[in-house]
Design goal:
single chain, mainly beta, 2 domains, 3 helices, 14 strands, Headcase middle domain-containing protein
């Protein structure tokens, strides 16, 4: 099957072998559900006729005014679609994953503020990422390239640290987490927090707590920090560099914390 867009906000499924297109019927053209198969996981695509579907259309970029003017550009904020007819894989993956759970809003993993999800880029006032662990119950379980992961989001204020109450620091080294280098409005296929270790506590085995990487060592790709590895000391296989965020970060006055877990 292939997913096509027949109007600015209408998603529909078309069979390549000449089968008829599925359309919503009735005078009021209500939303209909079409289930399709992707990466061995069932998704639900909301097909609408004469309406904007379950996701809202962005009317303006007012919320991005909290950013410095030089950062409001197509390099740092995802604006244009990459695929034909604006129907690229990343956008469809995010929207279909959320639609499967009937979610039109998602909570920031740090400050817990709810964010609206839009049908066009930028998809959210922040960014999405995939993590192999469920950082909170608001994270959406999904399948990506055959593996189970959780769709997670961070709002733009937490990414940029523009609000004093939304500044998060490492519990161990007190370094401020800075996500300003990340593109907003799209999705990363790896855990963005694991990809930016700030101290040795982030590089330890989840089982025996021995150091797996020298503090000055860096893996080749950001996504490597999300992969499962085997500890050479205890032979435990885990995504050792992906830590629970409550263990790593706080926006409260720093104090001494016990070793996790």
């Amino acid at each position: 099957m292939c997913i096509e867009e027949r109007s600015e906000s209408t998603f529909c499924i078309e069979e390549k072998e000449g089968k008829k297109e599925k359309k919503a019927s009735g005078s009021n053209r209500a939303s209909s559900l079409v289930t399709y198969r992707m990466d061995t996981c069932d998704y639900v695509c909301f097909t609408t006729c004469g309406s904007n579907g379950i996701f809202s259309r962005r009317l303006d970029f007012t919320l991005y005014n909290v950013l410095p003017k030089q950062r409001i550009n197509s390099i740092e904020v995802k604006i244009e679609d990459e695929g034909k007819h604006g129907n690229d894989d990343t956008r469809m993956f995010v929207l279909s994953s959320l639609a499967a759970h009937k979610k039109t809003h998602i909570a920031c993993i740090l400050c817990k503020e709810m964010m609206m999800v839009y049908d066009r880029y930028p998809l959210v006032d922040g960014t999405f990422f995939l993590s192999p662990i469920q950082h909170s119950k608001d994270c959406i379980e999904t399948k990506f390239e055959g593996r189970t992961c959780y769709l997670t989001s961070v709002c733009l204020e937490c990414l940029d640290g523009t609000s004093p109450e939304k500044i998060f620091r490492c519990r161990f080294c007190a370094e401020k987490w800075d996500g300003s280098a990340l593109m907003m409005g799209t999705m990363y296929s790896f855990d963005i927090f694991a990809a930016m270790p700030c101290c040795t506590e982030r590089l330890k085995c989840n089982n025996c707590f021995k150091l797996l990487l020298h503090p000055h060592q860096r893996l080749n790709f950001f996504s490597d920090y999300t992969h499962s590895v085997t500890c050479p000391y205890c032979q435990s296989q885990d995504t050792h560099f992906v830590k629970p965020l409550d263990y790593c970060y706080t926006n409260k006055p720093l104090q001494q914390y016990q070793q996790w877990p």
